[in-house]
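Quick question about two entries, pasted in order.
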Amino acid sequence: VSYYRVYSKLISRNNENIGVVTLLQNITKFKETDRLKSDFLAIASHELKTPLTSIIMSIDMLLRDLTGKVDEENLELLKIIEEESNRLRNLVNDLLNLEKIESGKDPLIMQEYDLNILIDRVMERFKVQFDELKIKFIKNTSENLQSWSDIGKIDLVLSNLISNAVKFVKHDGSGEIILTVEEKNDKILVSVADNGIGISSGQQAGIFNKFQKIRESVNDIQKGSGLGLSMCKEIIKAHKNNIWVESEEDKGTKFYFTLDKKK
């Protein structure tokens, strides 16, 4: 199987179309390299999952048994091992989830539902975090926003976008995240905006690529795996819809994605 990228340009002269120039770029080698990389990551993730689970269970047992029996320095080392092991487990789980979505092993379960119900559920999950970090969350939606999509996967998209915003807004009471949903051009348009540090134009070009990380967080929050936005892109692409970003450094970021209305 060969893959080509097609470029076409209409040629005009004296306000008259005289032909079309078409360029075919063979990208088969790039596709094959990308497939091999994905296969390697999937296999490595599967192989890492079992020993990681054993390590985390063992550390948990040690922490319970040794608390109060060892000095604070050694106890702190065990807690660091636990934290890093959990971070590695989250990375492995993200890789496995992304591999399932990309390969079609995790098919969409399409249904009709009111997006407001899903948004309220996601907001409730973040409520404690918003309160603790003094982040103002604003919801701008209309009633009866019926979507035809996979509610579980759209939940994942919203959670990822809000979680990203939390990392990059200030936690001094000035941080603000705005979730807006509206009907536009026979689609449902969803946006998650923040007033955080923003993303440079150079980073925006590859923001949805695997392991692409945004600028360092302004807050002391654990860094992500760099897979969240890539997962969002694959989920929205599987829905045959679009996701994109608008941002300006030091002025904030706004992610958009579209969904189909009810059938």
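Here is the second entry:
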Amino acid sequence: MKKVREGYKMTELGEIPGEWEIKPLNKIAYKIGDGLHGTPVYSEDGDYYFINGNNLNDGKILITNETKKVNEIEYQKYKKELNNNTLLISLNGTIGNLACYNSEKVVLGKSCGYITLKESVNKNYIFYALNSNKIQLHFYKELTGTTIKNLSLDTLRKTNIPIPYIKEQQKISSILSSVDEQIEISDNLIEKMKELKEGLMQRLLTKGIGHSRFKNTEIGRIPEEWEVFRIKDVSDTTSGGTPSRTHKEYYKNGTILWVKTGELGKKYIFDSEEKITEEAVLKSSAKLIPINSVLIAMYGATIGKTSISKKELTTNQACCAIICKEGVLNYEFLYYILNFNKNSLIKLGAGGAQPNINQIIIKEYKIPVPSLQEQQKISSILSSVDDQISQYESKKEKLQELKKGLMQKLLTGKIRVKVS
């Protein structure tokens, strides 16, 4: 049996500080319930939003263009006991998602649960406790239903929470809130840089740099000095293949990257989930594709997504590799052009619910081609923005890892905070 540290005790939630308590959620809440089991009368000019569990995201109530509204009469008919000490929780779909209620004008649907807490506990601390891995895992173990899984109110009421003294609750939530604030700052910076990139692409990929004269072409208005080429005029294309799974020697101890369409979307490909052997390349439809090729997904859920190969690699048959002609077409410029024109390229595809494009469509696709020098300048500007986005995303990932570690240690008392 594991020895309990001095000053700690063993509980159903594991080892916690001796002075902490374990309490079920219904002992620290005035009321735990859910929303309307039915449909209200919607009103386009209503003042209240009708929300469900899918409107709860990252601690906030997410209102979209699809969120329905109701009027004052419907609100008064179906309103719940919500106040600034209330947490909202998703009871099906994205189960366990939480939001802090802050006097928003909302009416709850049945998949949106509410927990109105007593003043003896700190709302933000309980929010983080319910978001912890241990409690989220408990929710998933207790789900009811067959095709549609539900988190029952009974499970919610009986869920045990570790409860420190109130000042320690406040300190723990303050530390975690400060990390969340930094994550939100990173999110805002990422969003602003993406908006900047979108604007730059619109300008640079249609108007170029320093041009004053323009011409009308079959692909739209472009600088007079630019030309229009089909992709096949300025590059070579090829697609990949899948080595037979029955030949284990094609995959076992493989060292050659084998990229699937699901791995496309990030700018550069340096590695792959699976690798194949030299024998697979020699004896199957897989082909070696040179470094700095532009890869594009031709069908499936990832259709139109692009990446640049930064190692010699192979791909499956759903990927088309475009190998730019040296001195004519810059691979980074092509990458940005294909990203910018993704929707128009997809529209050329055929198929059922999910369109498909193929090598013929890609080869015949027309693109604007500036001088190589201008291509490189445009690519350099857009790459610098991409680099900045990557830095912010990397910082966000580190903050998320920090938060994850802090939650594990602070919400179990493994690390104690100092309180006055």
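Reply: The chain is about 35% helix and 25% strand. The radius of gyration is 28 Å. Hope that helps.
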